[in-house]
Design brief:
Residues 10-65 form the Helix-turn-helix domain. By secondary structure, the chain is α+β, with helices and mostly antiparallel strands. Helices cover 49% and strands 15% of the residues. It has helices at 14-21, 25-34, 55-62, 67-80, and strands spanning 11-13, 44-47, 50-54.
Length: 81
């Protein structure tokens, strides 16, 4: 049995993902419904009515790096100064 750490920040629901990337929740759901093949294998899953998506999945469909990674990198660079 595969164990998944649901406390991992790289696993989020569609609403959280949309908020992090500055998109509408509808965008995420629409992309899942229209082009599920564009998501890397294992990066999306539906639990009941709730879609769960990984950071990898969001980066794949948006073409943008996780904004949290960019913020952490910027913060680390500022700390080095």
């Amino acid at each position: 049995m595969v164990r998944i750490n649901l406390d991992n920040v790289n696993i989020m629901d569609a609403r959280q993902a949309a908020e992090i990337w500055g998109l509408s929740e509808g965008y995420v759901r629409k992309r899942i419904n229209q082009a599920p093949q564009k998501f890397p294998k294992g990066s999306i899953r539906k639990f009941g009515k709730q879609w769960v998506i990984t950071t990898e999945g969001m980066e794949a469909i948006t073409g943008k790096t996780d904004p949290r990674k960019i913020a952490r990198k910027k913060k680390a660079e500022e700390a080095e100064k």
